[in-house]
Write a structure and sequence with these properties.
Layout: H1 17-48, H2 54-68, H3 72-87, H4 93-97, H5 100-116
Helix pairs in contact: 1-5, 2-5, 3-5
């Protein structure tokens, strides 16, 4: 049996280095934004959960558990396909390309952990 003779060549990526760096920048910006907004909303929901009123607590518990008990991928698919139909809105094509569902689920996904703590 002979050894592997394939030579990995990633030199073509050098042409796209600025595009890769731009994508990395957007990824970092998106991650930081999700954490910041998730922390703010999670702090607000967590403080509201300290209320002794069950009229405040029951909807917040349902809200937190709805996001805690479903995987992020399920939330993204649900917000992309089912949510617009249920609400009766039409998401334009440019918003779909910008991954509206990813943005609309990442913040609640982050805040559910902050609110539960």
């Amino acid at each position: 049996m002979t050894g592997v003779t394939y030579h990995w060549d990633f030199s073509f990526l050098w042409m796209y280095r600025w595009l890769l760096l731009k994508g990395l920048g957007f990824t970092i910006l998106y991650t930081v934004g999700s954490i910041v907004f998730g922390l703010l909303i999670g702090l607000l929901v967590g403080l509201m959960r300290l209320s002794k009123s069950w009229l405040v607590n029951v909807p917040l518990i349902a809200y937190i558990e709805a996001f805690r008990c479903t995987p992020l991928l399920v939330q993204i698919i649900w917000f992309y396909y089912a949510f617009p139909v249920l609400v009766g809105i039409d998401i334009p094509a440019y918003a779909r390309r910008a991954c509206w569902s990813c943005r609309s689920t990442r913040v609640p996904s982050t805040q559910r952990y902050f609110a539960a703590v």
